[in-house]
Design goal:
About 25% of the residues lie in helices and about 25% in strands. By secondary structure, it is of the alpha/beta class. The protein has one domain: Survival protein SurE-like phosphatase/nucleotidase (Stationary-phase Survival Protein Sure Homolog, Chain: A, 3-Layer(aba) Sandwich). Strands 3-4-2-1-5-6-7-11-8 form a nine-stranded mixed beta sheet, sandwiched between helices. It starts with a strand and ends in a 7-residue tail after the last helix. The mean pLDDT is about 95.
Length: about 260
C-alpha cells in the first residue's frame, strides 16, 4: 500500500511523527509512506489553497518533502508533482495537536488536507488528538492516537461503506483526551456544536503603540448539543465522523420550493 501523509502543524510536529508510525503500520513491510507537509504551521487555514501564488517544495530526505503552503496545497503537490503517476491508496492528515471535533472541523487545516484528498478521488482520513487533563501531562500526549490510530482506520476500510454521492467520503477521527489504556472504544457520530462557543477576536497593543488582533478559540470542554463527536471524545471514546464536501442543506431544499 502507498500512503501520502500531511498535516497542518508543520513538518517537524510531533503529531506528524505519530502519523508516520500509523501509516507505516497500515502500509505494511512492502508499502510506501510519502510525506508532503507544510514547512511552517498552518493551523486554522481550513481548505485554503495557494491559487494566486506559487510555493516552494523542498526535498528533506527519501519520500519526505516540505512545502511552503497549506495542507490542501501539500496534497495537490504530493499527488500531481511528487508522486506523479504513482497514485496513493490512502491519504492521511494529522495527527493534529488538539481536537477537530464539532465546529473546529470547519476551520481545520487537518480536515482541509483530507477534504482535498477526497475531492481528488483518494480515500482520506483526518486524525486529531484532543488535549485535556487526562493526557496533556503524559510523556506522550498523543498516546491514544498512537496506540489506536491504525486499528481505527483498518476497521473503517474493512466496513467498505458504499457512497451514494458524487462527492467522495472522507473521515474525521478524533481521539479522546485520555491515556491509551483509558480509551473506551469507538463511536460513529455526527459533527457537533459546542453550546455558546464561537471563535472571537481580541485587540492588543504592542510597546510601540501599534494595534494587533488575536483570534481566540472557545472553551473546548463545554457542553455540546446532543450526542456528537465532541461528546464522545469527552466521554473517553474515539469519534469517527463520515463527511463530504457537499455544503447543501438537503433537508431545506423542499421547504424552499416556493421561491422558484
Amino acid at each position: 500500500m502507498r500512503i501520502l501523509i500531511t498535516n497542518d502543524d508543520g513538518i517537524n510536529a510531533p503529531g506528524l511523527a505519530v502519523l508516520e508510525e500509523i501509516a507505516t503500520t497500515l502500509a505494511g513491510p512492502e508499502g510506501e509512506v510519502w510525506v508532503v507537509a507544510p514547512a511552517f504551521e498552518q493551523s486554522g487555514v481550513g481548505h485554503c489553497i495557494s491559487y494566486t501564488r506559487p510555493f516552494m517544495i523542498s526535498e528533506l530526505g527519501p519520500r519526505r518533502f516540505a512545502a511552503e503552503g497549506s495542507p490542501a496545497d501539500c496534497v495537490l503537490a504530493g499527488l500531481h508533482n511528487v508522486l506523479g503517476d504513482m497514485k496513493p491508496d490512502l491519504i492521511l492528515s494529522g495527527v493534529n495537536r488538539g481536537n477537530n471535533s464539532a465546529e473546529n472541523a470547519l476551520y481545520s487545516g487537518t480536515l482541509g488536507g483530507a477534504l482535498e484528498g477526497a475531492l481528488q478521488g483518494i480515500p482520506s482520513f483526518a486524525l486529531s488528538q484532543y488535549y485535556g487533563p487526562g493526557n496533556r501531562d503524559l510523556a506522550n500526549a498523543f498516546e491514544a492516537s498512537a496506540a489506536h490510530g491504525a486499528a481505527v482506520i483498518q476497521k473503517i476500510l474493512a466496513a467498505d461503506v458504499a457512497n451514494s454521492s458524487a462527492y467522495q467520503l472522507f473521515y474525521n477521527i478524533n481521539f479522546p483526551p485520555v491515556a491509551a489504556k483509558d480509551v473506551k472504544g469507538i463511536k460513529v457520530t455526527p459533527q457537533g456544536l459546542r453550546s455558546g462557543q464561537r471563535f472571537s477576536a481580541e485587540e492588543t497593543q504592542s510597546p510601540n503603540g501599534r494595534r494587533y488582533t488575536w483570534i481566540k478559540g472557545g472553551d473546548q470542554h463545554s457542553a455540546t448539543f446532543g450526542p456528537c463527536d465532541a461528546t464522545a471524545n469527552m466521554d473517553g471514546y474515539i469519534s469517527v465522523t463520515p463527511m463530504r464536501a457537499d455544503f447543501t442543506a438537503h433537508d431545506v431544499l423542499e421547504a424552499l420550493t416556493s421561491v422558484e
